[in-house]
Amino acid sequence: MKLIPLPDLGPRPRSEFDYGGELRRPPMGADTALWAAYVFNRQGAPGLLREWWYHRPTGAWYLFERDTLADRFIRHIPVQDIQYELPSADPAV
Amino acid sequence: MPWRLLKFALNPNHSEPRFFPPETPLKERYDMVIIGGGGHGLACAYYLAREHGVTNVAVLEQGYLGGGNTGRNTTIVRSNYLTPEGVQFYDASLKLFEDLAEDFDLNIFYSNRGHYTLAHTDSAMRTMRWRAEVNKHFGIDSEVVDRSHIAANVPDMDLDCGGDAPVLGALWHAPGAVARHDAVAWGYGRGAYQRGVEIHQKTRVTGIKVDDGKVRGVSTSRGDIACDKVISMVAGSSPRITSMVGLETPIEIYPLQACVTEPVKPFLDTIIVSGSLHAYVSQSSRGELVMGASVDPNVLHSTRSSFDFVEELADKMLDLFPFTGRLRVMRQWAGMSDITPDFAPIMGKTPIEGFYLDAGWGTWGFKATPISGKTMAWTAVNDRNHELIEPFRLERFADFVQVGERGAASVGH
Question: Which residue in the set B248, B306, B307 is minimally distant from A41, CB to CB?
Answer without folding.
Answer: B248
